[in-house]
């Protein structure tokens, strides 16, 4: 098989489809994040990459926390909307009537209609070029009991996530 040099941007695929939610004061926001993943097993940590020009960037930077929400396929319209519209232009959660609830550990909203919500506290960050990678210590993971295996780990084969 002859190989050709490919474009470097976004070379690692597939990336999980996630929505990161945050709060600063009374203001809440949620945005689609393309760069994310696990980055530590012990202690459990995840990283999310956010462009500093994004509205949620300063909210996460100042609050020191965020929630990673994994959307199911039935949330695709909301996912697409949250990826296209900025909080600068409108209160996205209110306009689309997206249900939220308070985190149990962090001061950030969980998107109630997403099957998995991961509460995180920022422990570090690094500028990697276009994005600042926020490293979040996983404080609590919310998932329906029927999506868990006998060890209480998430069985992703039971969840119809956006791919």
List keywords for this structure.
Pnp Oxidase, Chain A, 3 helices, mainly beta, 7-stranded antiparallel beta sheet, 163 residues, two-stranded antiparallel ribbon
Provide a compact summary of the structure.
The protein is mainly β and 163 residues long. 13% of the residues lie in helices and 37% in strands.
Topology:
Layout: E1 18-24, E2 27-33, E3 35-40, E4 45-50, H1 55-63, E5 65-70, H2 76-84, H3 92-95, E6 100-102, E7 109-111, E8 116-127, E9 132-142
Antiparallel strand pairs: 1-2, 1-5, 3-4, 4-9, 5-8, 6-7, 8-9
Biggest β-sheet strands, sense, barrel: 7 strands, antiparallel
Shape: globular
Instruction: Please trace the helix and strand order, writing H or E for each element.
Output: EEEEHEHHEEEE
- Strand percentage: 35-45%
**Could you give me the name of the CATH homologous superfamily?**
Electron Transport, Fmn-binding Protein, Chain A
- Tell me the radius of gyration: 16 Å
Q: Largest beta sheet: what is the strand line-up?
A: 2-1-5-8-9-4-3
Total discrete domains: 1
Low-confidence stretches: none
CATH T-level fold name? Pnp Oxidase, Chain A
Number of strands: 9
Separation of termini? 28 Å
- In terms of quaternary structure, the protein is single chain
The top level CATH class name: Mainly Beta
State the share of residues found in helices, binned by percent.
Answer: 10-25%
CATH architecture: Roll
The average pLDDT is 94
SS field, number of helical segments:
3
